[in-house]
Structures are given as structure tokens and as C-alpha cells.
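re the bet — no i am not wrong, look at it urself. input seq straight from the record:
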Amino acid sequence: MRDPGDMPALFVQAWMARDADALAALFAPDADFVNVVGLWWHDRDAIRRAHAYGLRGMFSASTLRVGRVKRRDLGGVCVLHARMHLDGQTAPDGSEAGPRQTVMSFVMARQGDGTWLCVSAHNTDIVPGAESHVNDGADLKPADYRD
């Protein structure tokens, strides 16, 4: 890509086309991707395989949209934070899950030919009303410490 700021829209475009190859092509060969539950994929092929699996299954009927994007240019590196809106995920029981919002962080690096690739991505669910998670011995539960 010629402009690193195109990453969120290109990610969504590949997602909506259910094209894991196009999605993976946005990433450097040795890129890292951490998903919303902390699964960590360490290269482009692992990123492709993980998204192919999700786009065939739990996300096959989903809609992903980009919301607000914040950009920070750092010379040959650009950091993007993008609010994402997801609808239509399939729950494990086959029903439609409720909508989710996440913040995705993309670290983009300029390549020798002037194009840009993502070298690191991290997706974080937004949990309304929570400040952290607490491990109750069985599960992580959203927690709010405010009075």
C-alpha cells in the first residue's frame, strides 16, 4: 500500500470479501498479530491461517466497519489506532452474537520500495463499564473500581 493510513480500510475490505490471502498480504512476512483473547500469531502465514479459519466459521456472516482512526507518523513507521464495529458473529451454539466494538492498533513500516506493510497488529475488545479484568479462579470477569 502507498499510504499507511489505508490499512484499516484495506483490512475491512479483505475481511468483508472473506479473503484471508488479501488480508495476510497487508502484513510483513514476519509480522505479529495479537487477537482479542491474546492469541498471538508470529508471521504472515499464521495470520492468514487464523483469519481463514475465522472467516469460514464464526465470522462468515459478519460485518466489520471502521470507525474513528488516529494516526501518528514517526518517519518510516506509522502507528494507527482504529475503532472497529463488528456485527453478525456466529456464537458457538449457532445463534447470532451481539455486536462488538474493538480498538485495533496497527504498526506500519515503510518498505524499501516506498510501500507500507503492517509489522504488528493488536485487537482489543471494548468492554463497556469496565476498567480491567479480574480472575475469579474460573474466568476473567470485567471489573470497575470506580466509586
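see?? The chain has three helices and eight strands. told u. also The beta strands are 27-34, 40-41, 63-73, 77-87, 100-110, 116-125, 132-135, 140-143. so pay up
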